[in-house]
Structures are given as C-alpha cells and as structure tokens.
Amino acid sequence: MSHPSTSPAGKFDTSRAHEYARQSRIALAGYDACHDLSACMLAASLGTDRTATVLVVGAGGTAQEIIAMAALEPQWRFIAVDPSEPMLDAAMQQLQAHDLLDRTQIHLGHVEDLPADASFDAATLIGVLHHLNGDQPKRDILRAIQTRLKPSAPLIVAGNHYAYASQPLLLQAWAQRWRQQGASADEVQAKLGKILQGADPPHSEAAVRALLSEAGFGAATRFFSSLFWGAWLASKAS
Questions:
Q1: Which of 138, 148, 175, 185 has the fewest C-beta atoms lying within 10 Å of its C-beta?
Q2: Which element (helix H / strand E) includes 123?
C-alpha cells in the first residue's frame, strides 16, 4: 500500500529514534507504569496462562509494551508494526537485549500492509493517534486494526488528547516537567513550541471514545491518566 511522503513516520528519523527512550519518559510522567498497566489490562481481559498473538502498532522506539507484556505472559507472541525504520531498529535493539526477538515478528510498514484476513487476539496502539493529522487517518488506523482482530478482542489505545492550547494549566505543568528534568528556560520554550506544532491529538476524551465507536469498538474503560495523556481498553464490538 502506498503512503504519502508527508506521513507522520517522517518525523521519527534516526536522531529522534536515538533520543526517544529518554524524551518519552520525560514527556509522559508514568511512561513505564502506563505500559505495565496496559499489559495487566490485556491479561485481565484475555485471561492468564494462555497463548495469544498480539498486534503492536507503532512498536518502534522502546518496544516497552512488548517487554511489559512478555514479562507478564510468557506464552504470548507479538507482531510489531511501525512505518519508521530508525524507530524499528531502536525497538529491535531493546527486544534483543530482553531476548524477545524469537517471540516477535517485525514489520516495517502500516497496519494496512498486513494481510486483510489476519486474526489477532489483542492489539495495542500506544502513542500513535496524536501524531496523525485529522480525524480520518485516526479512524482509518483504528478500523484497520479492528478488521484484523478476532471477535470481542481487546485493544489498548493510549496517547495525548485535548487540543494542547485549550489546556494552558496542563501545558504549563508540562513545561515544569521538563524544567524538573534539568531543561533550561530556552529549552523548555523550544519543547513547547515543537509540541504545539507537531501533533494533532483528539480534542477530548469523548472524541477518543467516538473514534473507537466509529471504528467498531465497544465502550472504552479508562485506566491511566497523566496530564494530556490517557489510556483506554476497548473491545471489538460483536
């Protein structure tokens, strides 16, 4: 499947991939906790001590969702999909360090590139939606995941929501988070400028729920929150 050169994957070049692990943990207070809880939510939904194949969309960077799920459920296997080669390379380094390459199939590309008749027990979409400009690409990726899930299979969706400028207090708290980690005033302003120009989050929690419903998922359960970030579990509607 062809994709325009303006794809958000272009933002995740080698330079960004190299800094992703540190930057993401600063930008998201509770980064590891969110991934750990995502694994717990999927295990609670699927049941423990069973085999499962999990589709991990946007797996590049830290591969933290795979690491967390694999530690909790040793019989699960993973299909990791990401359109950024540098980010996938970074993820593969982490998977190799955790001895997980034999449990993970790596696909450079998009969900739509996977076979239409693929059938997964669960899926994750963490840190992706807010990088897609406009509602239609968000619907498209959710629908592409939905069609490749088994009936009633769970999906974890996590990412930023709210238009950033609409929440000035949260935005200023985000600035303080960077300052807390040692960034200078100029660096903080540069970070905020990049954030305001570089993403298009759903504008509310209701918008996230609407996108999930339109893509064929049932009611979503929110289980994590951190400033602009939220995480939900929803299941494929019957």
A1: 185
A2: strand 122-126
